[in-house]
Amino acid sequence: MSELESHAAAIAEQFSDHLDITQEDVEERLETLVEEYRVPLDEARRSVESQYLDEADLERDELGSGDSELVQLGEIDEDEQWIDLRVKVADLWEPGHESIAQVGLLGDESGTMKFVAFDTSDLPELDEGTSYALSNVVTDEYEGSFSVKLNKTTTITELDEEVEVGDDAVTVEGALVDVQSGSGLIKRCPEDDCTRVLQNGRCSEHGQVDGEFDLRIKAVLDDGREVHEVIFDKETTEELTGIDLEEAKQMATDALDTTVVVEEMQGDLLGHYFEVSGPVFGRYVLVDEFERLDGPADPESALIKARSI
Amino acid sequence: MREVARRVFASEFNDASHTFKESDDERAPAYQLLPTGEKANRVFFVGTLTEKEDIGEDNEYWRGRIVDPTGTFFVYAGQYQPEAASTLRDLDPPAYVAVVGKPRTYETDDGNVNVSVRPESITVVDAATRDRWVVETAERTVERVAAFEDEGNEYARMAADRYDADPDRYREVAVEALRGMDEDGDADATDTDGQAEPTP
């Protein structure tokens, strides 16, 4: 979508409750100003908005997002800016606190960003995988990372079209507090295009099959505020644990039991801190890169924070 | 969905004697109410295992004392926590350990409520992990204290009703824990200069 089209869509959105206009109508008016009269796009938008305000007999401040600008998530680099977004809900997480109605990840072409909606704002719930125009959301910064907050004045409009989410990686960190079942040395279904993990030698789709061995770790990272489920695939599991598939098979053969592998692996993982990054798939972060956080901790910033309240 | 493992120092944890449920369903999770105004169904902590003892009669039942800069966590692991029990059996104190577990309370004959942890896992870690936990736990504690007066913070209201202690006390405890880390650092530096350790 061109910048002009984005603006046109946003304007059409803004007036959708008041006037029967389409994005094409708006585009036409914008194009006239921008192309024929050489008016800068911002000014053109303002002018077109004014025309529609007149037509709808509205004041500018009755229009929720009159002053906020449609931006992409990747452009957000300032705290407390009022903005509009066209996004898809990429992921919803469990709210860590009663005051939070929804928390999760929004995505657009430029990437993804955390969002929070507070219980007191009384907003309709966002559905995972659905695209929305959000107007009047406010940016927030915490220790250099940005998020957006929905608030009482935010308007949420479901979009017919799907917003494409840029393939960017999220980074999460925390203590590794659990290694989930289905970790370590596992067997997958060998059928074409089926990679389901077997339970007791059975695939839920293809029944009893001769599985193929694989390694993975499903773990939970927890920073005391949020939990993230993460999956290490064969390569990252080998790198993480120093145990490769051949060794794992040998361990299982020697013990006549595959569970010895995960038992051996988790002793060095549980209770340790990690930072991982990778794309989000469903409720999991698929780990592309990870770092064991075993450097010295710095109490100074925490002290400053503790003394500032 | 999985519950967050709260970060709480031993001094606050051991004061958190009130538990509650959020529904009448008997399988509903039980929460411990932290005096800084948060519910805890799971905790994560790192400290020094200083003692362990098998206090079971017929079956193994291990009690461990795990010390952080503010106090002592008591963990109990028996036949239903086989991995944690076997870790305690095999470990020689002192050792840095990380524990994920569920808060448990029980009332003693004289009416006091003792707070302990039923571990899901106990693993050996290093001093850097312990330090990271102290910093993180101080931050989370301070955040809870800072949010204590927030409108709509229902667990803070509950804590104000249930507990006498001023939540700011736990902020002070957190500051002390952080300052203690600084001093540890200085002491190490002194050692490398070949000077005698300060007498306690």
Explain the overall architecture.
- Chain B: Residues 178-200 are annotated as: Disordered.
- Chain A: InterPro entries: NA-bd_OB-fold, SOSS-B.
- Helix content of chain A is 25%, strand content 34%.
- Chain A has helices spanning 3-14, 23-36, 41-56, 234-241, 245-255, 259-266, 299-307; strands at 69-70, 82-93, 100-108, 111-118, 131-142, 145-150, 155-158, 170-179, 184-188, 202-203, 207-208, 212-222, 227-232, 273-278, 280-281, 284-286, 289-292.
- In chain A, the strands form three sheets. In chain A, strands 8, 9, 12, 13, 14, 15, 16 and 17 form an eight-stranded mixed beta sheet that branches.
- Chain A is elongated and about 80 Å long.
- Chain A starts with a helix and ends with a helix.
- The radius of gyration of chain B is 18 Å and the shape is globular.
- Chain B has a single domain, classed as Beta Barrel (OB fold (Dihydrolipoamide Acetyltransferase, E2P)), CATH 2.40.50.
- In chain B, a hairpin with a 2-residue loop joins strand 5 and strand 6 (71-77).
- Chain B is 34% helix and 31% strand.
- Mean pLDDT of chain B is 90; it is low at 186-200.
- Chain B is built from five helices and eight strands.
- Chains A and B meet through strand 8 and helix 7 of A and strand 7, strand 8, helix 3 and helix 5 of B.
Pairing-aware structural class of the strands and helices of chain A? Answer: alpha+beta
Helix-strand category of chain B: alpha+beta
The CATH first-level class of chain B comes to Mainly Beta
* Strand proportion of chain B: 25-35%
Number of helices of chain A: 7
Tell me, briefly, the overall form of chain B.
globular
The CATH architecture name of chain B reads Beta Barrel
Strand content of chain A: 25-35%
What is the residue-averaged pLDDT of chain B? 90
Query: What is the CA-atom radius of gyration of chain A, in angstroms?
Result: 25 Å
* Termini Cα gap of chain B: 47 Å
Name the helix and strand elements of chain B from N-terminus to C-terminus, one letter apiece. Answer: HEEEEEEHEEHHH
User: What is the name of the CATH class of the largest domain in chain A?
Assistant: Mainly Beta
The overall strand count of chain B is 8
Could you give the count of β-strands of chain A? Answer: 17
Which oligomeric form is depicted? heterodimer
Radius of gyration of chain B: 18 Å
> What number of domains of chain B?
1
Determine the CATH superfamily of the largest domain in chain A: Nucleic acid-binding proteins
CATH architecture of the largest domain in chain A: Beta Barrel
